[in-house]
Design goal:
Elements lengths: L3 H4 L15 H13 L10 E5 L4 E2 L8 E6 L6 H18 L3 E5 L3 E2 L6 E8 L17 H4 E2 L5 H5 L10 E6 L2 E6 L5 H6 L3 H19 L5 E2 L13 E6 L1
Parallel strand pairs: 7-8
Antiparallel strand pairs: 1-3, 2-5, 3-6, 4-6, 8-9, 9-11, 10-11
Helix pairs in contact: 3-7
Length: 238
């Protein structure tokens, strides 16, 4: 299974074929989810795969399936959810499918522990691209220091394409930060920057495995370097 290559070719889509995926494929996805190691050992989430009848939300695309992700209050709730399910998104692309993360999708009936979700299925349009076609910040805008895994981080998806994360490299140690709010009216409307940070951390974990490097994440590092203004420390990768 290759989760690394899709990082450099994935393209979210709004146009899906409406034919549902087969039961065997859905079971493969479920099995994969069970095998993903969480970012934090005690992180716990639930999910359900529903059809159009089970999802609601403003301007969500029509798709045969929606992944709805929930979890009770816990440390780094959004970060851990994004980390786990970005692995799933990359897995879907490795199978030839496509996705679109959705900040407004909700479960029907309402789930008070809902966090985020995404649409997925067979794409009805081109769902791949070249690395040069990604509209992303430069590495110098999202990180300080040099690490070969940062290109994979740079290409991670995020709400409104804001990339609300920052990485500071100290030797073999990488400190991770994020913006708790985007500020202004956008910040009042968009509340998933922690999930976005988890997506970026997933890409670092996948790149670590590809390069044969360790990925050990902890939140108890004392006196991490000071980040740019408006960024908050999440944890450290060693």
């Amino acid at each position: 299974m290759d989760l690394y290559s899709p990082i450099f070719t994935r393209k979210s889509t709004r146009n899906f074929e409406m034919t549902p995926l087969g039961k065997e494929t859905i079971q493969q996805i479920e099995t994969f989810i069970k095998g993903v190691a969480p970012l934090l050992p005690k992180a716990e989430f639930t999910h359900k795969i529903v059809g159009p009848e089970g999802a609601a939300g403003l301007a969500i695309p029509k798709a045969p399936h929606y992944m709805l992700i929930s979890g009770k209050d816990q440390p780094l709730r959004g970060v851990c959810a994004g980390f786990l399910f970005q692995h799933v998104e990359l897995y879907l692309y490795s199978m030839g499918f496509a996705t679109r993360w959705l900040s407004s999708v909700k479960s029907k009936p309402n789930d008070p522990n809902h966090i985020v979700g995404f649409a997925f299925g067979k794409p009805a349009e081109l769902a791949t691209r070249k690395s040069a076609e990604f509209d992303r910040k430069s590495i110098s805008e999202i990180a300080k220091g040099t690490d070969s895994r940062l290109e994979a981080v740079r290409l991670a998806p995020s709400g409104l394409n804001k990339q609300p994360w920052y990485f500071i490299v100290e030797g073999k140690t990488v400190h991770v930060y994020y913006q708790q709010s985007l500020g202004g009216l956008i910040g009042m409307m968009y509340k998933l920057t922690a999930v976005d940070a988890g997506l970026a951390l997933c890409h670092m974990a996948v790149a670590s495995e590809h390069e044969g490097k360790p990925f050990r994440f902890s939140t108890d590092k004392k006196n991490p370097p000071s980040p740019p203004a408006k960024f908050t420390y999440i944890g450290t990768v060693e």
